[in-house]
Design brief:
mainly alpha, globular
């Protein structure tokens, strides 16, 4: 018994846990594991469908995704205004589970319609942002600012483990089950995530009225909150630059990969291998390094690190736009985002009002993100039509990455200032 307690204490110290945090962190870890495992099972299928639908159509697909987001966000605002958290989150996940079952039926025929493939690409792009945004809204709601700095990277590691398991499941089962039936496996993991939500809601429920009712306000409050706050608008710009640069790199990836491989199965396998490499590297950092980086150097450094690396990556890609450089840049970008930037970005929301954690955050993570995707897609297509090659486009991304780096430093300093003001107010009460 004593040995077990000593081992538990050592694990707690290794993972930077405090007394009583273990069950909540474990449930949150499991929740995010199931969530991203569900997504990554179907992500390689989405990427292949993007290429199969035609590279000249990608900007239209990204625009379609943005338009769907514009319709979905007011609906989310309607639900969040009226449903308490304990009912809001289960309702959202049940909706997406039903969607997966619908697409499984649609894509299970011998020849799935082209419009179905494009619709699935759009749906997966919406699904990914919504479920992850709602997850982090929940985390920012139940953990404090100080806890977020220590624990968000550890919790994010659950998602990384799921993102490792997802491609592995796809690789192992794709031939045995077929693409369409993988959607049923994805839905099963989403059901498990729903179970974790129900557990967490029971653990953190209180007699506070704010836990027992909806957030109130209008369906467009996420928009008004974002544009009414310089801090939230800065986060929105941070997301805009991130999405713009990610889209540029995604389009470069599509062109370079298509030139390197004629076989669709080979392309799907490459995408899955990239996912696996990204997530193995990410997991190591999230479990042991990121939380301590944020504690020691602060949120500002964590937010600025990956943009600086991406600026360097685009420089190298401009000099040598070939597959190995593309793969290395993509792995560094995505691993840096998941391991360091994303946990730091979510800490930014721990100092805003509860309503903003759900409504403004959802608007920023979905509409602004996919709006940047759509605009960047048309910019890329426009630059290609003007005769710019992959090298020239990569050079245009470098100053954007440097601007993103400076904005990250500014937002991190603002977050620290707001957190200190909140702590001082609590000390005076």
């Amino acid at each position: 018994m004593e040995n077990g307690l000593a081992l538990s204490a050592r694990i707690g110290r290794l993972l930077n846990l405090r007394k009583g945090e273990g069950p909540l962190v474990a449930a949150s870890f499991f929740y995010f594991f199931c969530l991203l495992c569900s997504y990554y099972i179907i992500r390689p299928v989405r990427d292949e469908m993007g290429i199969a639908g035609g590279l000249d159509q990608l900007q239209w697909v990204f625009t379609g995704t943005f338009l769907v987001m514009l319709a979905a966000v007011p609906f989310f605002g309607f639900l969040s205004a009226r449903l308490p958290r304990a009912r809001l989150l289960p309702a959202i996940y049940l909706f997406f589970i039903m969607n997966l079952l619908f697409f499984q039926l649609l894509l299970s025929g011998e020849s799935a319609p082209l419009w179905g493939a494009r619709a699935f690409f759009i749906w997966v792009s919406v699904f990914n942002l919504f479920i992850v945004s709602v997850f982090w809204s929940f985390m920012a709601d139940i953990f404090s600012n100080a806890q977020g700095k220590r624990l968000f990277a550890l919790i994010a590691a659950g998602g990384t483990a799921g993102a490792i398991a997802g491609p592995a499941i796809t690789t192992l089962l794709a031939l045995q089950l077929g693409t369409a039936n993988l959607l049923l496996v994805s839905a099963g993991f989403l059901c498990a995530a729903l179970g974790a939500i129900l557990y967490l809601n029971r653990r953190v429920s209180s007699s506070d009225k704010s836990d027992q009712q909806g957030l109130g306000g209008s369906v467009f409050e996420g928009f008004t909150q974002t544009f009414g706050s310089r801090y939230l608008l800065g986060i929105g710009l941070f997301i805009w630059l991130y999405a713009t640069l990610s889209t540029f790199l995604y389009f470069e990836q599509a062109h370079i990969v298509k030139a390197a491989f004629d076989d669709p199965d080979a392309r799907t396998r490459l995408f899955a291998l990239i996912d696996l490499a990204v997530n193995l590297l990410t997991l190591l950092f999230q479990l042991l390094i990121t939380g301590r980086i944020m504690q020691k150097f602060g949120v500002a450094v964590a937010l600025a690190a990956m943009p600086a690396l991406l600026a360097l990556g685009f420089m190298v890609l401009a000099i040598a736009p070939v597959l190995p450089v593309l793969v290395a840049t993509q792995v560094v970008r995505r691993a840096g985002n998941y391991a360091v930037t994303r946990p730091a970005r979510e800490v930014l929301y721990t100092v805003v009002p509860r309503s903003s954690k759900y409504k403004a955050k959802n608007f920023i993570d979905t509409v602004i993100y996919r709006g940047a995707d759509a605009v960047a897609g048309w910019l890329f297509a426009g630059m290609k039509s003007l005769g710019m090659g992959l090298t020239a486009i990569a050079w245009t991304a470098v100053p954007l990455a440097l601007a993103w780096c400076l904005l990250g430093l500014h937002l991190g300093r603002q977050q620290r200032k707001m957190a200190e003001e909140t702590e001082n107010e609590h000390a005076r009460i």
